[in-house]
Amino acid sequence: MALKTHCKITVSKTFTDYNGKEYTFEANKLNSVTVSTKMFPIAKAIGTAVGAGIDNSKFARTWSAFTMQIQENLEDKLFEEIRDLLFAELACDGEKVTYDWFDEDEYRGGMFMDIFFWLAKENFGNFIVRNGMFQRCKTKLEEMVGTDLTEKVEELLNSKN
Fold first, then answer.
1. Strand 95-96 with 22-28, pairing
2. pLDDT (tens digit, 9 = 90+) per residue, 18-32?
3. Which residue range forms the structural domain that includes residue 97?
4. Using CA atoms, how far apart are residues 84 and 99, in angstroms rounded to an integer?
5. Which tens digit of pLDDT belongs to each residue from 111-151?
6. At what angle do helices 63-73 and 32-55 cross, to 10 degrees?
7. Number of folded domains that form the chain
8. Within a domain: 4
9. Could you tell me if 143 and 49 are in contact, meaning their C-beta atoms sit under 8 angstroms apart?
């Protein structure tokens, strides 16, 4: 029996451009199958970074070194796919937003990354925070670097930039 899914969860948030003008954005959240599919390569990259830290005595035990290892293992294509999925159903004040929308007004361009991180948090935040595999990787990394990373993860998820 096929599972029918017609329920869409819509999120909205207001952003202000460099000129002080406010825009309200709405987007449909990705479904759980899409989120889990896109998170698998990210999980592999994090696992690789943690594994490298455990196995390689030359691994610098810092947050920067960990993030560099992740960056080396994530492909640009994955970022582009995730970006395109997140922005696919983005609307501003009821009208669909294309990438060109951000360039139509010189003050709008600065909102792009803020909106990207908002959409990423809305779609992937709970998966990362509550997923057992990510929690195990986080625990291993904390053992390596000797610090609690919960605050860093929360900062990243709650960051405006």
1. unpaired
2. 889 999 999 999 887
3. 10-158
4. 10
5. 898 999 899 888 887 766 665 556 666 676 667 666 666 66
6. 120
7. 1
8. no
9. no
